[in-house]
């Protein structure tokens, strides 16, 4: 892919250009090249681009150029569907502010200390990055003032719709000035997103960027056909064989992710779990450890996929196949980042075939099948403890024969026990009779003999 312009040509100041170069970024991606001039002009924009195209910088750079550090008002609001994505965007902004300490950014999301958020909001906060629920909570408490807001960004709008945030987004937009600039970014354009744009945006300019090469050209994809019962063995076989540097394992539900984590952790794998039931503080620690390669395997749900942007991920395992194509693309996009290569392996059971067909149809090509000969692997329970091999089931004839043999054995045993009992009883009775006879015999003691002679003399 050829990038035609650098950021100076797009209107980005030398201060931010210097910071970009320090981070190894010298040329704009297609979404940046097309979106930045439009945003700088103040027009509303709809950007249709997938993860990994550089869309975050496409809206962050123009926002930073427009911030007035002398004002204490919240001037820009970025709304994201998940805490992970909100933190990722905040991190990107802070990277760009190393030479602009006069601009302040604050992330607002559930699981944080509310009192701490309130203290920071009372200070000079110019940019707020927030999740819908916690932001709406602050709006209703009147602890955030959006009356002088100049820019709002709805990032990953289709995912906010998927998570049920549509009404929250409408309530948030209703609390912002009509004069604001509105930006909406989404990988797909469902009907409700188009309705939202029509209602709240002013003649938005549409920018579409195709990024199929992100998922097809740089990522090797494979399918392993298996069953739900055999998935744990198949997964461990591939993990032991490939020895990934960093890997993300995706499960469909929190329960399945937690169960798989317990299984792998019990077997000694260096892994962690990431899903909605994990407390926010722990989630942040897990992500920090994963970025620092202190954790090798991250077991996650789709919610976590939206905020995962970690260099060095060599493998993605779809332990459960996603139910839609966009989720599949977002999942496997966790590897093969920044032009690097990656491997995505999807475990498919018979019931998953329709989802696989839809994915292959969208990609325009079948995904390579891999057949593995699974070795004998020690069975373990969900805590990683060995499970004893169950006794083989017996046929009806075997059970009947065992029953007859058991009856005969019991009969012989009863007969032997009866004979032994009779013999012991006979021996005891004989012994008692002998004792009785001995008791009735005249004693050999002298006293006894003399008494007997006296009786006879009488």
From TrEMBL:
PROSITE patterns: HELICASE_ATP_BIND_1, HELICASE_CTER, Q_MOTIF. Residues 443-458 have a biased composition (Basic residues). Residues 36-207 form the Helicase ATP-binding domain. Residues 5-33 form the DEAD-box RNA helicase Q domain. GO terms for molecular function: ATP binding; hydrolase activity; RNA helicase activity; RNA strand annealing activity. SUPFAM superfamilies: P-loop containing nucleoside triphosphate hydrolases. Keywords: ATP-binding, Helicase, Hydrolase, Nucleotide-binding. It comes from the Bacteria. Residues 374-458 are annotated as: Disordered. One of its GO terms (biological process) is response to cold. Residues 374-384, 397-425 have a biased composition (Basic and acidic residues). This is RNA helicase. It comes from Bacillus cereus.
